[in-house]
Amino acid sequence: MVNESLPPEIPKLMTANEVARLLRVSGRTVFALVERAELPAVRMGRCVRFDPADVLQYIGRAKRKGVPHGTK
Predict the structure, then answer these.
(1) What is the pLDDT along the chain (72 residues), one digit of tens a residue?
(2) How many CB atoms lie within 10 A of CB 30?
(3) Is 26 within a domain?
(4) Is residue 9 part of a domain?
(5) What is the DSSP secondary-structure string of 3-70?
(6) What pTM does this model have?
C-alpha cells in the first residue's frame, strides 16, 4: 500500500491507465509511446509506472511539435 502522505518533493508514480485517462488515449497508445522512447517509464518487475513530471514534459513536447493537419 502506498503512503498517501509522501513529501511533496517525491512524486506519486502513475499507472498506465492513469496516464491514458490524462492524455485521453488508450493504454495501448501509452505503451506505444514507451516503446518509441517518447515517454519514459519506471519498470518494477512486471509493473510499469510513470513519473508525473515525465508525463507533463511529454505533453509540453507534443504541444511544441503541434498536431499534423488533418488529425484529431
Answers:
(1) 555 676 777 779 999 999 999 999 999 999 999 999 999 999 999 999 999 999 999 999 999 877 665 555
(2) 25
(3) yes
(4) no
(5) -TT--TTSPPPBPHHHHHHHHTS-HHHHHHHHHTTSS--EEETTEEEB-HHHHHHHHHHHHHH-PPTT
(6) 0.77
**Distance, CA of 22 to CA of 25 (rounded, Å):** 8
Report residue 59 CA to chain centroid gap: 9
Q: How many domains does the chain have?
A: 1
C-alpha cell at 36: 518509441
Please name which of 67, 68, 25, 69 lies closest in space to residue 50, comparing C-alpha atoms: 25
| DSSP structural state of residue 2 | -
**29 CB-contact burial (10 Å; exposed 0-12 / middle 13-18 / buried 19+):** middle
Instruction: Let me know if residue 50 belongs to a domain.
Output: yes
